[in-house]
Amino acid sequence: KYLHSMGHRRIALCTTGLMYDANRKKRMGYHQAMEELGIDQQDRLEIDTDDLSVFSLSNRLRSLQEIGQIPTAFLTFNDTEALKIISLLHLLNLPCPQEVSVVGYDNYDCAELTVPPLTTVKQNMVEIGAAAAKLICGVSSDFVDAVQEESGRFIFKPQLIIRGSVRKLED
């Protein structure tokens, strides 16, 4: 939704590791947000980076560029994929964020040191670890700052870390 608030409508999702429940939920969240925001189906693009080498991904981006279908923003499942996208965009003379915005996930230590500094989503690992320790020690789950699903799993609210890899689009 942050990318939408910055004027982006053609937002691509770079998926990886869909065998993991957490990544499938991120993907569902993307589709739910696109639906809620009224983003047309033709403005949505999903690229499964698991199936693509750097060379193949570069070719895929180049072909999108050639037909004028490059998204205005990429949303990735992790910071490594985000940095890969930024590098490939640079090679295609589509610098981030001047031409295309990119958002990562995980807030790796290097995210603030990249050029441009990466806008990313941070999971509070200290909070998650503390909750796990409380539950292992038998402390009531009432003291865990998260939403508990019917399955018993906890959902922690991530934090958007805004840096320099997203540009506000003008109307």
The whole-angstrom Rg is 17 Å
Biggest sheet strand order reads 2-1-3-4
Low-confidence stretches are: none
Please report the number of helical segments.
5
Residue share in β-strands? 15-25%
**Coarse morphology:** elongated
Write down how many β-strands occur, each being a DSSP E stretch of 2 or more residues.
8
The average pLDDT is 86
Please give the largest β-sheet.
4 strands, parallel
Give the SSE string: HEHEHEHEEHEEE
* Percent of residues in helices: 25-40%
**N-to-C terminal Cα separation, in Å?**
17 Å
Class from helix and strand fractions: alpha/beta
Keywords:
171 residues; 16% strand; two-stranded antiparallel ribbon; single chain; 8 strands; 34% helix; alpha/beta
Structural overview:
With 171 residues, this protein is an alpha/beta fold. It is built from five helices and eight strands; from the N terminus they run αβαβαβαββαβββ. It has a four-stranded parallel β-sheet with strand order 2-1-3-4, with helices on both faces. The chain has a two-stranded antiparallel sheet with strand order 5-8. A two-stranded antiparallel ribbon has the order 6-7. The chain is elongated and about 60 Å long.
Note the topology.
Layout: H1 2-5, E1 11-15, H2 21-36, E2 44-48, H3 54-66, E3 73-76, H4 79-91, E4 101-103, E5 120-122, H5 125-136, E6 147-148, E7 154-155, E8 159-161
Parallel strand pairs: 1-2, 1-3, 3-4
Antiparallel strand pairs: 5-8, 6-7
Structure, briefly:
It contains five helices and eight strands, in the order H-E-H-E-H-E-H-E-E-H-E-E-E. The strands form three sheets. The protein has a four-stranded parallel sheet, with helices on both faces. A two-stranded antiparallel ribbon has the order 5-8. Strands 6-7 form a two-stranded antiparallel sheet.
